[in-house]
Specification:
Blueprint: H1 5-11, E1 27-32, H2 45-48, E2 53-58, E3 68-73, H3 81-95, E4 100-104, H4 109-112, E5 116-119, H5 121-125, H6 146-158, E6 163-168, H7 170-185, E7 191-196, H8 214-235, E8 239-244, H9 251-260, E9 264-265, H10 268-274, H11 278-294, E10 300-305, H12 308-311, H13 313-327, H14 339-347, H15 350-356, H16 373-386, E11 397-402, H17 413-431, E12 437-442, E13 452-457, E14 462-467, E15 470-475, H18 485-499, H19 515-518, H20 523-529
Parallel strand pairs: 3-4, 3-6, 6-7, 7-12, 8-10, 8-11, 9-10
Antiparallel strand pairs: 1-2, 2-13, 4-5, 12-13, 14-15
The chain binds 1,6-di-O-phosphono-beta-D-fructofuranose.
């Protein structure tokens, strides 16, 4: 394989480490509380007995035993995964040079099937600071049946693992907690440790400021949106309806809106709060298009989070019903819907109907990236404008989807360094046998050297939710907080952006040049800490 010049230069990049991690062999745990803890769950009673949070302090160096660790990448790609593995590897070798690392292949299935490759310095050398998950691959298999739990136990016992590090999102970390609990019940000595991954930015709480991959994804999408906005302004003939990946939550859309200042950005959580119907959303977009048209502007940029459909009340209700019917294996779902949902379903185009009927992922999620909301809205807005007597403009629209390209890009310096630190903390948690904990790196708005580290008990993040027709323990996705500084900042200016052309062009992720560019952090992180 030939590598580009930029890839070669990135392989040589040395991520900076938080000061606290510089002498990793001197770190000792301090067990304590976290800010919000949920009621102990019966299903996870062993984990519930453990302390909620672990922080670390530097003391005298001490000897560490060699660690045997297995690592798995679970779910969708997110830039920086290779650096978590590199951080894990380097940290365990610093703790004891005889430590060994095994990468399970193609996601959790690699654990149950005992398929792995040993991670060596030479192997890692070709992946450091590069995007993608191709070093070991990823997958969405969920470990849920008794046979799968047993198979996972057999694998970690056969490999004599001290730790199993699960790099994943909300569902994968829920799975990590269940596996940790199971191993405790079985007296299996392998500690299961989580790492917060997902471009969606929805695995956050008082101890996890952001999941890795979000920074690189929003910077990649913002570059594209900025370029498109400039195209809109140059040709003055198209409305670009840009759907953005991010599953249910609208964090990606909100950050991209602040970065690029488009004419309109739909925020799913706001739609849900206002209980806006599909017709109201379409009328809102049409109003904006009419106003701009009266000012001679028949062009613009509209951002649509991919999860928006789940927040539109009548479609949400329809999806819930479809989920339950599909989970029960009902074939002729259309005839089993309530009257309201049947009406809503019949309003949608046949393509959109069949997209809503797509199979769910193994965790029961609707595959929103496959649903072409941008085309649905273009279609409905076109019809709404045709019915308006006061609209004399010309509406020509282009659908665009920003999705997969943001997941496997070269990680920004932020993600490269954040992930490297997360990997170090995961190794420390394994060394401590802190099973059921997730790696945390905090104070992210500060320079890397000042970042803080810790581990949070996953059980403090879990509650009960209906999935695939059954009540199950899950980590709730964190949605956009409509009372947050980020949302206020967006809300304050969006009317101006709608009427005028105040587009902002962030350009590509920068690796060389002034630190203001190479170390830039998102508005999401900046505003949360201000
Ligand atoms: P994770 O939650 O596993 O990190 O995946 C995130 C995501 O990229 C979503 O934004 C998107 O809806 C989904 O994965 C797409 O899934 P797939 O890769 O299976 O098409």
């Amino acid at each position: 394989m030939t590598q580009s010049l930029l890839e070669k230069l990135r392989l040589e990049y040395q991520p900076r480490l938080p000061k606290v991690l510089e002498n990793i062999e001197t770190l000792r745990p301090i067990f304590g509380k976290c800010k919000e803890c949920v009621v102990p769950l019966e299903a996870l009673s062993n984990l519930s007995k453990k302390d909620p949070f672990i922080s670390f302090t530097n003391q005298e160096p001490k000897e560490h035993r060699p660690l045997r660790i297995g690592v798995v990448l679970s779910g969708g790609q997110a830039a920086g995964g290779h650096n978590v593995i590199a951080g894990l590897y380097d940290a365990q070798k610093k703790l004891n040079p005889d430590s060994e690392l095994f990468g399970f292949l193609n996601g959790p299935k690699g654990i149950t099937d005992n398929k792995y490759r040993e991670i060596t310095q030479e192997l890692l050398a070709a992946y450091r600071n590069l995007g993608g998950f191709d070093l070991i691959g990823s997958g969405r298999t969920k470990i849920e049946t008794p046979e799968q739990f047993k198979a996972a136990e057999a694998t970690v016992r056969a490999l004599r693992l001290d730790g199993l590090v699960i790099i994943g999102g909300d569902d994968s970390n829920t799975n990590a907690a269940l596996l940790a609990e199971y191993f405790l019940v079985q007296n299996c000595p392998t500690a299961v440790v989580g790492v917060p991954k997902t471009i969606d930015g929805d695995l956050t709480n008082s101890d996890i400021e952001i999941s890795f991959g979000f920074d690189s994804a929003v910077k990649t999408y913002s570059e594209i949106i900025g370029n498109i906005a400039r195209d809109a302004l140059s040709a003055k003939k198209y409305y670009y309806f840009i759907k953005l990946m991010g599953r249910s939550a609208s964090h990606i859309a909100l950050e991209c809106a602040m970065q690029t200042q488009p004419n309109m950005t739909l925020i799913g959580e706001e739609i849900a709060l206002k209980k806006d119907t599909l017709t109201q959303i379409v009328e809102g977009i049409s109003d904006m298009i009419c106003t701009r048209s009266k000012n001679g502007k028949d062009y613009g940029v509209i951002l649509i989070p991919e999860g928006i459909i789940e927040f539109i009340p009548e479609i949400n209700q329809l999806i819930q019903e479809l989920n339950d019917l599909l989970a029960q294996g009902v074939k002729d779902v259309k005839n089993k819907l309530t009257q309201a949902s049947e009406h809503c379903f019949s309003m949608l185009s046949p393509e959109f109907q069949s997209q809503l009927l797509f199979d769910r992922d193994p965790h029961g999620n609707v595959q929103v990236s496959k649903i072409e909301t941008e085309r649905l809205l273009i279609d409905l807005v076109k019809k709404a404008l045709a019915n308006r007597n006061d609209y004399k403009g010309k509406f020509s629209a282009q659908p665009i989807f920003c999705g997969y390209e943001g997941r496997s890009c070269l990680p920004s310096n932020f993600d490269a360094q954040y992930c490297y630190a997360l990997g170090h903390v995961a190794a420390l948690l394994v060394d401590l046998q802190a099973t059921g904990f997730i790696s945390c790196v905090q104070n992210l708005a500060a320079p890397v050297e000042e970042w803080q580290i810790g581990g949070r008990n996953l059980v403090t993040m879990i509650s009960m939710e209906k999935r695939q027709g059954k009540i199950k323990p899950v980590i709730q996705k964190s949605l956009v907080n409509l009372k947050s500084k980020q949302f206020f900042a967006f809300q304050k200016d969006r009317q101006k952006w709608a009427e005028q052309d105040l587009y902002r062009y962030p350009g590509p992720i920068q690796f060389f040049g002034p630190p203001e560019l190479t170390e830039a952090i998102t508005f999401t992180i900046q505003l949360a800490s201000s």
